[in-house]
Amino acid sequence: MKIFDAHFHIIDFAFPIIENQGYTPPSYIVSKYQQETAHLNILGGAIVSGSFQGFDQEYLLKALKQLGPTFYGVTQLPFTVTDDAILNLHTHGVRALRFNIKRGGSENLSKLDYFARRVYDLVGWHSELYIDAKELPEISSIIEKLPAISIDHLGMSEEGLPHLLNLVDKGVHIKATGFGRVELNVENALKSIYKTNPNALMFGTDLPSTRAKRPFEDTDIELIQHLFDEKAVENIMYTNALKLYCK
Prior knowledge:
9 helices, alpha/beta, eight-stranded parallel β-sheet
């Protein structure tokens, strides 16, 4: 089974790490990620900048170089960043802008409309939101009009699932990640999202699963294989994310 790991973190203490909400993450360098996933057929993926990495890009550029051209970056940037800086990041494999609403460390949500459009128009990046879906009604009218958006970790909460599904129906992508950190029925969420839009779900390991009640396990993949037919599994595990990132 081919896998595109659409969501994982690299944590390299050779670069700035910022304590966030009293939390400092463990070291998790590229070689550790490769060791932990060696038994999986991971052909590419997306390194996601965490709240504890702020606007640092150097760790990400190093990790992308180490992992190779089938891996892409999801970064956090201030809205004051220059076009030249964005273009340079694109050249080095960055393909998405992250807004970390739940943990901070990224640009303010008030800049979402302007900034998401700016990076999309300039380099074709989508924007990714780490947000509890129960908060989506406040910004749904903005998200619906944006060209390309994804939402992390199945939207986090059962209460938020109906709001999430409304956006899935309008083309928003959803990360099938962090099953050990969410407060919802994972099976029901996966089936409901796929039924609404088979192109929406994108699997990711979420390694090293910082702050999650339970880290990623192979059983998370087995759950997807159990719930869906072979074609659907291929979409979720590989194709949907590849189409979004590989451009």
